[in-house]
Amino acid sequence: MLIKFYIKPRKGVLDPQGRAVSESLKSLGFSDVKDVKVGKYIEVYIENKDKEKAVEEAKEMARKALVNDLIEDYEFEIVE
């Protein structure tokens, strides 16, 4: 089973990397760019076949190791 984590800075949190990408895109002529958030994408492969248990494990992984919940939001997807 595969767990896909999508992690990004929370709204209102300073994102210097996103700002740099935004400015670069604007300088390349993409004048419609309003804002950019740069986050993380993480794939975790597990041997578990029980989807409910995988969901609980994913939440625990995020809470304990992958996400700084003070400044980041996350979503995950389970792929069987």
Please provide a brief summary of the model.
The protein has 80 residues and is of the alpha+beta class.
Structure description:
There is one protein chain. This protein is an alpha+beta fold and 80 residues long. It has one domain (2-79): 2-Layer Sandwich (Mth169, Chain: A). The chain has helices spanning 16-27, 51-66; strands at residues 2-9, 40-45, 72-79. Strands 2-1-3 form a three-stranded antiparallel beta sheet, with helices on one face. One of its GO terms (molecular function) is ATP binding. Pathway: Purine metabolism; IMP biosynthesis via de novo pathway; 5-amino-1-(5-phospho-D-ribosyl)imidazole from N(2)-formyl-N(1)-(5-phospho-D-ribosyl)glycinamide: step 1/2. Part of the FGAM synthase complex composed of 1 PurL, 1 PurQ and 2 PurS subunits.
Keywords:
2 helices; phosphoribosylformylglycinamidine synthase activity; 3 strands; alpha+beta; Mth169, Chain: A; cytoplasm; single chain; ATP-binding; 80 residues
Average pLDDT rating: 96
Number of helices: 2
CATH topology: Mth169, Chain: A
The CATH class assignment is Alpha Beta
* Sheet having the most strands: 3 strands, antiparallel
CATH superfamily: Phosphoribosylformylglycinamidine synthase subunit PurS
Q: What is the SS-derived class?
A: alpha+beta
Which spans of ≥5 residues are poorly predicted at pLDDT below 50? none
Shape: elongated
